[in-house]
Every structure is written in structure tokens, then in C-alpha cells.
Amino acid sequence: MTLTLADVRLAAERLGNAIVRTPFLHSQTLSELTGAEIWLKFENLQFTGSFKERGALNKLLTLGEEARQRGVVAVSAGNHAQGVALHARRLGIPATIVMPLSTPTVKVKRTASFGATVDLTGKDFAEASMAVPRYIEQGLTFISPFDDAEIIAGQGTIALEMVEQGPPLDVALVAVGGGGLIGGVATVFKALSPATQVIGVQSELYPSMALALGRYSGTLAGGTSVAEGIAVAKPGVLTLAAAQALVDDVIVVPEALIEDSVALLLQIEKTLCEGAGAASLAAVLAEPERFRGKSVGLILCGGNIDMRVLTAMLQRHLARSGQLIRLRVSMLDNAGLLGAVATIIGQLDGNILEVSHDRVFGGASARSANAIFTVELPDRDRNRVLLQALHDAGYDANLIEPMQTAPYSFSEVA
């Protein structure tokens, strides 16, 4: 299969007004923070919260009447599922969606709300995929999440819009799971803007495309990723061929930088992204010198995130940025000293979220105690000031398990 610009343009004609033409906007603040000229394609503003409905609808529109009556089956961690379910309902096509048991609840409920039958099975995408053949045997048409020419062409319509809406780009950064998105995007850019580098982004837990292209020396660790939308253990046959021919590079980023990127996009752009949706920004944070001074397009490919996961990400980002700390203060076990320490914390605008008083464990003597404080601070510099103030007051105070420093804190971008 050789996808062409004409295939993508035909897909755009098919989709018409059924898909949102999402904004492609310059981010002044992210540009100032990173040193690159950052442009954002807000695919998280699609009705289903993801770019996936472009490819899903394009594929569904190519089905004959008999195939439509029999119905379709798809396997997905959520975004492709919602795209297939929504547009299958619009077209009157019965849809069954196989989803891993680890799929965020918000994605499962939304998929079911579009009228699809949801089959939750398998611990991950690979295991869930094993359930698909029995549905195909029943006559249902399989709608691949990525390894299909019509799917890839549909995803490529994003790049058509980027070329029309924005300036010439030096780099387009694209999150990669199975590779359908980057296959379509690269097809368009190499035809219409060949000077634009197309670079994929993957999580360090699932660098499948980077490994397949020989761009990464690590291993595929697997496990639970904060970017479950791109947690794919093996790229497709068609998508790998497209990447080999058209993709310039693949960057593998740490999970922590994906978390920080979700937090920064929420804080700066007031836009909610899931882990996969923020992966392209994580690549800029991971290799700032590579992109400094360049015009860089980021595709915010999805915004469907479990609120519990989002809460954990924001708290972890605050901890890495030094605005949420846990400290141990050793003191004599005398009345009033706990209050005295709390007063010092409060005078430096620290908000005490939790405190525990330990007289037995942690090395305290019979006449002393360790107090463990979890404290929220207004900026990253305040924790050093707080520690110094406690030391000056005669207390032995130390941070407990300081996290890896994040590139930016909320206070710096407020």
C-alpha cells in the first residue's frame, strides 16, 4: 500500500462537515518557555475528544450496504472506540467495541453512550485484540485502529488543515502508537511541505515504532502508561512501511515529562489533554536545544483522561516542581513545639495538607518526636527558604523523597 496525497484529499471530501475543523494556534507562552515557536493543533476539541474519529468515519463511509447491515467490530483503548461508535450510530451501523480491562472508565462509558456494544476483555491492547477474530467469523467488518489505508488517510486530513491554517513548519511532532496518525500526517507534509521534518513521539514504556525503525537502543518495558492511547506493543504493517519511507525520526520520552506536559497545557492553554495528547510537548521538553528557534507544530491528539489520573498527574507535577513537599522535622516532645513549627510554615505561605506525629519509629528518642508535614507552597524557591527558617529556629528539618525536578512549575507560568 502506498498512500498518496490524493487519498487524503479524497478522505477530506468524504468527511465534509461531519468532523470539526480544529484550531491550529500559536502559543506565545509555550514558545517563550521552550525557545521554539510552538503551534498547537487542538484535536482534543473533536466531539469525541480525539482525532481518531477522522479515520473511523472515513473507513465506515467506504463500506458497502451489506457490510453496513452486518455491523462492525473494533478494538481500542478508548479513542478509536468512541470514533467508531459515534459515527456507526450516525450511519445506522451496529458496532461492537472490544476494550482492554485497563481502559479508563470515562472512555468505556462514553463509548457505550454512543450505542455500541462494549466487550471488556484482556489486560492490554494485545490481549483484547485476541477477541476480535470471533466477531469477524460472525460476519462483522473489522475497523482497525491504525493498520488500514482508509484509516491512515482519514488521520492525514489533520495535516491538510495544518498546512492551510498555519505557517510553514520546520518540524511536526506526532504521538505514535500503532502509527496511523503519523503515517497520514507524514504523507501530507512530504507532498506539500517537504522541508518539514515529521518526528514521532513515544513513551519510554512503549517505544515500539522507535525500536522497529532502529531509532532507540532501549527495550519495550510495557506496563501501565499514563499515555495509554499510544501504549501499543507493535506497529502495524502498513504504518511501519509508511514510517520507514516518510518519518524523519522518533523521540522516546519519559513518562514524567508526559505528566508535566499535561499539567502545563492545562495551566497555560487552559486545554485538557490525555497523556498521548500531550506527548508531542513532552518531546520539546525532553530535547529543548533540538527545537530552539524552530517553528514546531504539535498535534494535541486527544483529551479523554480519567479524572483520578489527572489529579495524580497534577499532584506529581507539583511535587516535581517543588511546590508540594513532604518534610520531616525532629523536635523535643514538648507541648507547643508542633504548633511552633506549623507557625513557621504558615508565615512562609505554606499550606499544611497533612501532618503525622511519630514518637516511636523513624529514629526518635524517648523524649523526642518526628513530625511529618505535607505542605503546599506558592513557588519552588520557597521550600529552600522554609528549610532554612526551620534550621535557624533550631529544628532538624529535611525533605523526604524529593522528586525529580520538573522543567517548569505552575508559579512560573501563572
UniProtKB/TrEMBL annotation:
It catalyses: L-serine = pyruvate + NH4(+). Residues 326-402 form the ACT domain. PROSITE patterns: ACT (PS51671). GO terms for molecular function: threonine deaminase activity. The keyword Cell membrane does not apply. Its EC number is 4.3.1.19. It holds the Pfam family PALP. The keyword Lyase applies. It comes from the Bacteria. Its cofactor is pyridoxal 5'-phosphate. Keywords: Lyase, Pyridoxal phosphate. NCBIfam families: ilvA_1Cterm, PRK07334.1. Belongs to the serine/threonine dehydratase family. This is Threonine dehydratase. It comes from Sphingobium lignivorans.
